[in-house]
Task: inverse folding
């Protein structure tokens, strides 16, 4: 379970998240939407302890992430896979080395086992045989899929996806969402997915939350979101009828 | 006045963060295994990036220093035969290690800050943290060890270049015989130790200051640019201040 309780975050005096509370039950997927600068990516970074809140608490299962130091956060992060908005692939490592990196750092498997898992994961994301290529040689969609492979190589029970389809064409977007869906079905992970592509996101989600300028304006099931009268929620769910 | 206070505030913040990074580097050196392949790669980078730069700079400095000292000696005493003996302690104690330190601060320090800073703004450092690799352990520690190994080696090469260039200029300009030039009577063992201690200290300080500047980069390419500038300014300043401190301490010990 992931819980944010009254979280506030400020940068240089500006409040970027203001008293935000969210809950993602174990095994559920939360879609997190909002306009640019609403604080969506910030929520993900607070959940995995990459940033600390100025007020409020963040829990991952029973661990209060917001109170842990960098060393104590390690075992929490072992349970989390994160897909970054800007890929965050290590540009000096090959694709195979990138995907193997979390396992090598954690010394979680033998060299042979790591190689086998990398090969299997690349096949799962429909990119077989590209282990020796460098990230610079890949397209945006391929990088996102490599990022997905790296985030899930250690089979984390929690997955955080920061705009996994940003800047991708509709075909690649559908492919990424299909991969996320397949992985969710296979592993029943708790997930938070940030995306602007709400129509593609909804089939993956059990719950939806909408942020606006750092405040949570909606949280509920997808059916509740459909029934919501909030103009911003309606604008995200039905962009075609929004003036 | 306000600008001056802001500048002071930034300097104190930078120094505190660099101290934190330095402390963590020592902590990870003691607690975590050393990636020898990464150290070797970084040592090659540090040495390879700087060797020609250091040889050329110290070679020319040696030539200029001997030329100027020789002119003065000829003007005052009518004899330039002791030019080698006079300049050698200065090269060993001061110019060799300190100019090498400054060259490495500009050449390698900027490289470290730019590389680490780019990794910060493209979220690669966040990806490291999520993968169980503390950034100081993974990025700063190998560079720290590499610089500690390579800076004394570069300083020795620089001193040699300065010596050879000085010898050639003294022979060409003042007809000082190379055997006469190679007069080490005024060199003490303490001079060699002082030079090596300076080189070692610079080797420890430069990657930490540059790594800290890179890790504190924010924003996009502009932030990386600012981090790079901060790295070269702070590291060069640290080299000069440490030169004064170590040189002063050595002087007190000698007298």
Result:
């Amino acid at each position: 379970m992931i819980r944010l309780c009254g979280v506030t975050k400020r940068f240089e005096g500006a409040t970027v998240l203001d008293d935000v509370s969210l809950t993602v039950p174990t095994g559920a997927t939360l879609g997190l939407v909002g306009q640019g600068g609403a604080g969506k990516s910030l929520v993900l970074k607070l959940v995995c302890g990459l940033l600390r809140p100025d007020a409020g608490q963040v829990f991952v299962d029973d661990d209060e992430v917001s109170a842990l130091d960098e060393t104590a956060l390690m075992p929490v992060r072992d349970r989390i896979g994160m897909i970054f908005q800007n890929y965050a692939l290590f540009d000096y490592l090959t694709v195979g080395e990138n995907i193997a990196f979390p396992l090598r750092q954690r010394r979680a498997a033998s060299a042979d086992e790591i190689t086998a898992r990398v090969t299997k994961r690349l096949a799962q994301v429909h990119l077989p045989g590209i282990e020796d290529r460098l990230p610079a040689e890949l397209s945006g969609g391929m990088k996102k899929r490599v990022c997905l492979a790296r985030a899930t190589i250690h089979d984390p029970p929690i997955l955080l996806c920061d705009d996994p389809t940003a800047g991708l064409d509709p075909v690649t977007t559908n492919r990424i969402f299909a991969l996320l869906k397949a992985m969710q079905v296979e592993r029943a992970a708790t997930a938070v997915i940030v995306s602007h592509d709400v129509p593609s996101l909804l089939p993956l989600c059990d719950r939806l939350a909408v942020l606006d300028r750092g405040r949570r304006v909606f949280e509920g099931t997808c059916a509740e979101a459909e029934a919501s009268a909030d103009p911003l929620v309606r604008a995200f769910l039905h962009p075609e009828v929004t003036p | 006045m306000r600008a001056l206070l802001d500048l002071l505030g930034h300097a104190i913040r930078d120094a505190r963060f660099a101290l934190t990074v330095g402390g963590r580097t020592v902590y990870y050196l003691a607690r975590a295994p050393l990636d020898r392949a990464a150290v070797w790669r970084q040592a090659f980078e540090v040495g390879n990036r700087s060797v020609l730069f250091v040889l050329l700079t110290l070679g020319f400095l040696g030539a200029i220093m001997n030329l100027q000292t020789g002119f003065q000696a000829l003007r005052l005493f009518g004899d330039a035969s002791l030019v080698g003996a006079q300049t050698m302690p200065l090269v060993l104690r001061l110019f060799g290690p300190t100019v090498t330190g400054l060259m490495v601060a500009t050449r390698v320090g900027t490289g470290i800050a730019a590389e680490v800073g780019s990794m910060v703004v493209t979220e690669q450092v966040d990806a490291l943290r999520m993968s169980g690799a503390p950034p100081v352990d993974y990025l700063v520690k190998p560079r720290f060890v590499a610089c500690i190994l390579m800076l004394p080696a570069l300083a020795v090469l620089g001193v040699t270049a300065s010596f050879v260039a000085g010898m050639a200029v003294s022979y060409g300009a003042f007809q000082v015989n190379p055997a006469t030039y190679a007069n080490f009577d005024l060199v003490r063992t303490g001079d060699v130790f002082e030079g090596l201690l300076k080189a070692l200290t610079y080797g420890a300080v430069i990657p930490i200051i540059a790594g800290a500047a890179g890790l504190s980069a924010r924003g996009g390419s502009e932030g990386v640019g600012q981090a790079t500038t901060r790295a070269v300014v702070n590291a060069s300043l640290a080299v000069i201040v440490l030169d004064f401190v170590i040189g002063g301490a050595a002087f007190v010990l000698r007298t």
